[in-house]
Design a protein that fits this description.
The structure is a homodimer. The first copy, chain A, has about 375 residues and is of the alpha/beta class. Chain A folds into 2 domains: about 170 residues, 3-Layer(aba) Sandwich (Rossmann fold), CATH 3.40.50.1970; about 200 residues, Dehydroquinate synthase-like, alpha domain. Chain A is about 50% helix and about 10% strand. Chain A has 16 helices and 8 strands. In chain A, the strands form 2 sheets. The first copy, chain A, has a 6-stranded parallel beta sheet, sandwiched between helices. In chain A, helix 7 runs antiparallel to helix 8, helix 8 packs antiparallel against helix 9 and helix 12 packs across helix 13. The longest helix of chain A is centred in the middle third of the chain and has 23 residues. At the A-B interface, strand 1, helix 8 and helix 9 of A face strand 1, helix 8 and helix 9 of B.
Chain lengths: ~375, ~375
């Protein structure tokens, strides 16, 4: 158990950003995405904070929602050239994940992908401060990052103690302008994170109770938020639930999570451009239906804990109904109207050796799973 | 949200103690209690670890179960004189709490009580590493310490970011020899910590769910452990529940806990030598009975969450039954057969201005509460 990130949570917390940043130095690398923070005023607030303390700001923008290693390397080059003292990442998971890998690439003498592939180990990191604008991945309070190498069709996760953000500023008001779709996908993402740990390895009853607590919170607050996207309190509840779902609270006593559904979801994202959270809301119900006969006690305990039912099938149906109520797809056809090729999906799963760390699926299982994406 | 302590949890984790300690330096201040760690072999294991890495060990032993500021000052003097690089605290809450305050007193030019009273602020701390031998207070993963100034009849709590242990080694096997009484009091203590936050200030639904999760874990594992004190898995569940009950998981989104019951319990400890956990198991049921008419929704939601009942009185009765099943007292007479003086108890409560931070009791309320200790 270790998590050194200082989280500043609540309305107006960004008022403390400038002083926090200036404690690390004057030269700042500001990392963000495609500019939505300029439209909603967050960029101006952050720049106001940095200018007030006399920061010299070097900007790297344009991080994609599936973050690319090319951007990481270019931003690291800029940071190295400018001798930055601190990185400020303003955005959602893709921006913060990129900034995490940038932070260890700046002091290195090689490209970022060397870390992702595990060929090199980081020795130092430029301090990273995040300002979160999307409740979903939990990256704001953990040591993980996911980066894509498009040219080689690879999308890898990475974890290291050096890439915990030093500080994360979480103002739920900064998520008020997130649209319905990405709000819903964020909720699906946090639910999926909770379940990946539920189906992990190791008997940890209290961590299991924390998992149920987080999922129950999302079951309650999620549909309320979808009816009232401008409600600050509900944004705050979902933001904290998303942070809690992957900051370690649910993992203590477990050797690892499963993460199979994530790997199967990545295949749908890569092939049909399904947003990450949406891919999870399609794959999880299918995976649960497949697994309920193989690990009936574990699936049953989850459904009992979430919905009070002893009938796993009923529980899974209620989970699907919840995801649909949010506006998430639960079948591939819900998201994508084009032609599908089931065997092509299976082939990409095979090529990527997509699988869980705990519950292994065979090639035959792939077909059973993919069939369930459609029916 | 901030908690930098690295927790090493599990059977045999102390095998990593030597290397961890030597990373901080050679001169070690070893702090422990009255010697039970010599009887159960823990002292030998810890010394073996320290000797293997060539530590020079300076010992300060004899910390009392109600830890005294005199010991803190004497140990700090020893640490200062020897120029220690790191403190290793081996014991329960009293030993670790003492070591926390020792860690900031060594670099200071004044006595420890100056910190406790808030007259001076610490500027530095000698790194502290704890080895826990009793599951109860949660001090192993938080920034709090309680120290007593007997001469002046004061017992104060203190909190500062500098006193988080850098590392805490939690081997549930190290608690296997804890007797039935202190095992039960530890469970009562963790339940009380959870409730002090439940009755705190601020609307934090997910923190409330975490509180229920921790209490449900103790409701399930506690009685099983009391029937089988040598069961490692059950010791592990209670150890982790105790850590979780006061490491911040339950506090996010709350401005403060109430801590009234703790302050009323301290009065019983001071007057009749009631162990801390036992004082809480007497006061909490009484306090809940008093408060169920004043804050019926809050008491009701707790009892509903714990026992599934809509009848608060029934819920409180079930909580009492649980505490009795553990072997904890729920009335003063359960613990102490001597003469009682209700008005004297009330007088000490008044003199200490004992009260909650959120739910304030009047002098008349004191009498109602104390009456409930007896009936």
């Amino acid at each position: 158990m270790y998590n050194p990130t200082r989280v500043h949570f609540g309305k107006g917390v960004v008022a403390g950003l400038g002083n926090t940043v200036s404690g690390y130095g004057r030269q700042v690398l500001l990392v963000y995405g495609k500019g939505s923070i300029k439209a909603n005023g967050i960029y101006d607030q952050v720049m106001g904070q940095l200018q007030a303390v006399g920061s010299v700001v070097h900007e790297y923008s344009g991080i994609k929602s599936n973050p690319l290693v090319e951007d990481v390397d270019l931003a690291a080059e800029l940071g190295r050239e400018k001798g930055v003292d601190v990185i400020v990442a303003v955005g959602g998971g893709s921006v913060i994940d990129s900034a995490k890998v940038i932070s260890i690439t700046i002091p290195a003498d090689h490209g970022a992908w060397e870390f992702m592939e595990g060929r090199r180990k980081p020795r130092a990191a430029v301090p990273l401060i995040s300002v979160l604008t999307l409740a979903a991945t939990g990256t704001e309070m953990n040591k993980f990052a996911v980066i894509q190498d498009t040219a080689n069709h690879r999308k890898l996760g990475y974890g290291h103690d050096l890439i915990y953000p030093r500080h994360s500023f979480l103002d739920p008001a900064y998520t008020l302008s997130v649209n319905a779709g990405y709000t819903a996908y964020g909720i699906a993402d946090l639910m999926a994170h909770a379940m990946e740990l539920w189906f992990g390895e190791g008997d940890a009853p209290l961590s299991d109770r924390f998992i149920l607590a987080i999922m129950q919170e999302a079951l309650e607050a999620g549909p309320l938020l979808m009816k009232e996207l401008g409600n600050y309190e509900l944004r705050a509840r979902i933001m904290y639930a998303a942070t809690s779902a992957l900051n370690g609270f649910t993992a203590y006593g477990k050797a690892k999570g499963d993460w199979g559904v994530h790997s199967f979801g990545h295949v749908l994202s890569v092939m049909y451009d399904v947003p990450h959270g949406a891919s999870l809301s399609i794959v999880y119900p299918a995976w649960l239906k497949l697994m309920q006969e193989r690990i009936p006690e574990r699936v049953g305990a989850l459904m009992k804990g979430l919905f009070g039912t002893d009938d796993s099938s009923e529980g899974i149906a209620r989970l699907e109904a919840f995801l649909l109520e949010l506006g998430c797809p639960v079948r591939l056809a819900d998201h994508y109207a084009g032609d599908w090729d089931k065997e092509a999906v299976v082939a990409v799963m095979e090529r990527n050796a997509s699988n869980g760390a705990v519950h292994k699926l065979s090639a035959e299982d792939y077909r059973l799973l993919v069939d369930l994406y459609f029916s």
